[in-house]
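[Meeting: bench + compute handoff]

Bench side (C.D.) handed over the final construct sequence. Compute side (W.E.) agreed to return the predicted structure before the next meeting so the bench team could plan truncations. Sequence as handed over:
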Amino acid sequence: MPKKNATLLIGALLLAAVLGACVGGIQPVATEPPVEPTILPRPDSTSIPATDPGGSKAYPPALSPYPPADQAVTAPAYPLPVQPSPAPWQPQTGDQSLQRGEAFVDGMDILVMESFPPQFMLSLKGTLPTPCHQLRVEVAPPDSQMRIQVSVYSVVDPNAICVQVLAPFDAAVRLQGQPTGKYTVLVNGREAGSIDVP
Protein backbone atom coordinates (compact mmCIF):
# COMPACT_ATOMS: atom_id res chain seq x y z
CA MET A 1 0.00 0.00 0.00
CA PRO A 2 1.42 3.38 -0.89
CA LYS A 3 2.48 5.56 1.99
CA LYS A 4 -0.04 8.29 1.12
CA ASN A 5 -2.99 5.91 1.19
CA ALA A 6 -1.82 4.44 4.51
CA THR A 7 -1.65 7.92 6.02
CA LEU A 8 -5.18 8.71 4.86
CA LEU A 9 -6.48 5.41 6.19
CA ILE A 10 -4.90 5.96 9.60
CA GLY A 11 -6.32 9.50 9.74
CA ALA A 12 -9.80 8.26 8.83
CA LEU A 13 -9.65 5.58 11.52
CA LEU A 14 -8.54 8.10 14.15
CA LEU A 15 -11.33 10.50 13.17
CA ALA A 16 -13.90 7.71 13.36
CA ALA A 17 -12.63 6.70 16.80
CA VAL A 18 -12.80 10.25 18.09
CA LEU A 19 -16.33 10.79 16.74
CA GLY A 20 -17.48 7.47 18.16
CA ALA A 21 -16.12 8.37 21.58
CA CYS A 22 -17.84 11.75 21.48
CA VAL A 23 -21.16 10.36 20.37
CA GLY A 24 -21.01 7.49 22.84
CA GLY A 25 -19.99 9.77 25.72
CA ILE A 26 -22.96 12.15 25.42
CA GLN A 27 -25.62 11.09 27.84
CA PRO A 28 -29.14 12.52 27.73
CA VAL A 29 -29.82 14.95 30.55
CA ALA A 30 -32.64 13.76 32.77
CA THR A 31 -35.26 16.42 33.34
CA GLU A 32 -37.84 16.37 36.10
CA PRO A 33 -41.43 17.19 35.32
CA PRO A 34 -42.50 20.69 36.47
CA VAL A 35 -43.78 20.82 40.03
CA GLU A 36 -47.33 22.04 40.26
CA PRO A 37 -48.06 24.37 43.21
CA THR A 38 -49.96 22.76 46.03
CA ILE A 39 -53.12 24.59 46.99
CA LEU A 40 -54.15 23.90 50.56
CA PRO A 41 -57.85 23.39 51.11
CA ARG A 42 -59.59 25.94 53.29
CA PRO A 43 -60.37 24.32 56.63
CA ASP A 44 -63.81 24.91 58.05
CA SER A 45 -65.50 24.17 61.34
CA THR A 46 -66.93 20.80 60.24
CA SER A 47 -64.09 19.03 58.46
CA ILE A 48 -60.38 19.50 59.02
CA PRO A 49 -58.12 17.05 57.13
CA ALA A 50 -55.46 15.24 59.10
CA THR A 51 -52.86 16.19 56.49
CA ASP A 52 -52.77 18.56 53.55
CA PRO A 53 -51.90 17.33 50.00
CA GLY A 54 -48.22 18.04 50.67
CA GLY A 55 -48.17 15.59 53.55
CA SER A 56 -47.64 18.11 56.37
CA LYS A 57 -49.92 18.50 59.34
CA ALA A 58 -52.99 20.68 58.98
CA TYR A 59 -53.46 23.77 61.12
CA PRO A 60 -55.54 23.41 64.28
CA PRO A 61 -58.68 25.59 64.13
CA ALA A 62 -57.26 28.11 66.62
CA LEU A 63 -54.05 28.60 64.61
CA SER A 64 -55.54 28.46 61.12
CA PRO A 65 -54.50 31.34 58.84
CA TYR A 66 -58.01 31.33 57.42
CA PRO A 67 -61.08 32.80 59.18
CA PRO A 68 -63.91 30.39 60.01
CA ALA A 69 -66.16 29.55 57.07
CA ASP A 70 -69.20 31.17 58.72
CA GLN A 71 -67.37 34.42 59.55
CA ALA A 72 -67.64 37.32 57.13
CA VAL A 73 -64.34 38.90 56.12
CA THR A 74 -64.45 42.67 55.72
CA ALA A 75 -61.54 44.89 54.79
CA PRO A 76 -60.99 48.02 56.89
CA ALA A 77 -61.78 51.37 55.32
CA TYR A 78 -58.71 52.89 53.68
CA PRO A 79 -57.21 55.20 54.60
CA LEU A 80 -57.96 54.70 58.26
CA PRO A 81 -59.09 57.92 59.98
CA VAL A 82 -56.41 59.47 62.13
CA GLN A 83 -57.60 61.03 65.36
CA PRO A 84 -55.50 64.05 66.30
CA SER A 85 -53.99 63.76 69.75
CA PRO A 86 -55.09 66.48 72.18
CA ALA A 87 -52.68 69.32 72.84
CA PRO A 88 -50.98 69.22 76.27
CA TRP A 89 -52.50 72.59 77.19
CA GLN A 90 -56.10 71.43 76.71
CA PRO A 91 -58.14 70.79 79.89
CA GLN A 92 -57.92 67.16 81.05
CA THR A 93 -60.45 64.92 82.78
CA GLY A 94 -58.37 64.72 85.99
CA ASP A 95 -58.08 68.48 86.43
CA GLN A 96 -60.87 68.48 89.04
CA SER A 97 -58.52 66.87 91.56
CA LEU A 98 -55.79 69.47 90.93
CA GLN A 99 -55.41 72.98 92.29
CA ARG A 100 -55.80 75.89 89.90
CA GLY A 101 -52.87 78.30 89.71
CA GLU A 102 -51.50 81.25 87.79
CA ALA A 103 -49.93 81.39 84.34
CA PHE A 104 -47.95 84.52 83.49
CA VAL A 105 -48.42 85.48 79.82
CA ASP A 106 -45.48 87.55 78.60
CA GLY A 107 -46.18 87.50 74.85
CA MET A 108 -49.20 86.87 72.64
CA ASP A 109 -49.68 87.17 68.91
CA ILE A 110 -52.32 86.17 66.36
CA LEU A 111 -51.02 84.39 63.26
CA VAL A 112 -52.99 83.96 60.02
CA MET A 113 -52.28 80.64 58.29
CA GLU A 114 -51.91 80.53 54.50
CA SER A 115 -55.02 78.53 53.72
CA PHE A 116 -58.52 78.98 52.32
CA PRO A 117 -60.59 79.69 54.24
CA PRO A 118 -57.98 81.37 56.47
CA GLN A 119 -57.15 79.76 59.80
CA PHE A 120 -56.01 81.67 62.86
CA MET A 121 -53.46 80.68 65.50
CA LEU A 122 -52.92 82.33 68.88
CA SER A 123 -49.26 82.17 69.92
CA LEU A 124 -48.68 82.35 73.69
CA LYS A 125 -45.40 82.64 75.59
CA GLY A 126 -44.87 83.00 79.30
CA THR A 127 -43.96 81.22 82.52
CA LEU A 128 -45.58 78.93 85.08
CA PRO A 129 -45.01 79.27 88.86
CA THR A 130 -43.07 75.96 89.08
CA PRO A 131 -42.12 73.05 86.79
CA CYS A 132 -44.88 71.04 88.52
CA HIS A 133 -47.57 73.37 87.19
CA GLN A 134 -49.26 72.30 83.94
CA LEU A 135 -50.48 74.83 81.39
CA ARG A 136 -54.18 75.01 80.53
CA VAL A 137 -55.88 77.17 77.85
CA GLU A 138 -59.63 77.50 77.37
CA VAL A 139 -61.17 79.32 74.38
CA ALA A 140 -64.75 80.50 75.00
CA PRO A 141 -67.29 80.93 72.20
CA PRO A 142 -67.77 84.54 70.97
CA ASP A 143 -70.02 86.68 73.18
CA SER A 144 -72.65 89.22 72.14
CA GLN A 145 -70.00 91.94 71.85
CA MET A 146 -67.98 89.91 69.29
CA ARG A 147 -65.23 89.07 71.78
CA ILE A 148 -63.42 85.75 72.18
CA GLN A 149 -62.24 85.26 75.76
CA VAL A 150 -59.16 83.06 76.18
CA SER A 151 -58.33 81.88 79.72
CA VAL A 152 -54.72 80.89 80.37
CA TYR A 153 -54.00 79.27 83.75
CA SER A 154 -52.22 76.32 85.34
CA VAL A 155 -53.08 73.30 87.44
CA VAL A 156 -50.89 71.56 90.02
CA ASP A 157 -51.04 68.74 92.52
CA PRO A 158 -51.19 70.49 95.91
CA ASN A 159 -49.24 67.63 97.55
CA ALA A 160 -46.40 67.72 95.02
CA ILE A 161 -42.96 68.73 96.26
CA CYS A 162 -41.42 70.93 93.59
CA VAL A 163 -38.49 73.29 93.21
CA GLN A 164 -39.61 76.92 93.38
CA VAL A 165 -38.44 78.24 90.01
CA LEU A 166 -40.38 79.63 87.08
CA ALA A 167 -40.96 77.27 84.14
CA PRO A 168 -41.29 78.76 80.62
CA PHE A 169 -44.08 77.73 78.27
CA ASP A 170 -44.80 78.22 74.57
CA ALA A 171 -48.20 77.24 73.13
CA ALA A 172 -49.96 77.58 69.77
CA VAL A 173 -53.76 77.62 70.12
CA ARG A 174 -56.07 77.30 67.12
CA LEU A 175 -58.92 79.80 66.91
CA GLN A 176 -61.51 78.08 64.75
CA GLY A 177 -65.20 77.28 64.55
CA GLN A 178 -66.45 80.87 64.85
CA PRO A 179 -69.21 82.09 62.52
CA THR A 180 -68.56 84.82 59.99
CA GLY A 181 -67.61 88.14 61.58
CA LYS A 182 -64.82 90.24 63.04
CA TYR A 183 -63.82 89.36 66.60
CA THR A 184 -61.58 90.80 69.27
CA VAL A 185 -59.42 88.21 71.05
CA LEU A 186 -58.79 88.78 74.78
CA VAL A 187 -56.25 86.74 76.75
CA ASN A 188 -56.89 86.89 80.50
CA GLY A 189 -58.67 90.21 79.91
CA ARG A 190 -55.88 91.70 77.76
CA GLU A 191 -56.44 92.37 74.07
CA ALA A 192 -54.27 90.18 71.84
CA GLY A 193 -55.66 91.34 68.48
CA SER A 194 -58.57 90.66 66.16
CA ILE A 195 -59.55 88.08 63.56
CA ASP A 196 -61.84 88.49 60.56
CA VAL A 197 -63.65 85.21 59.79
CA PRO A 198 -65.05 85.18 56.21
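W.E. noted at the follow-up: The first strand starts at residue 99 and ends at 101. C.D. will use this when planning the next construct.
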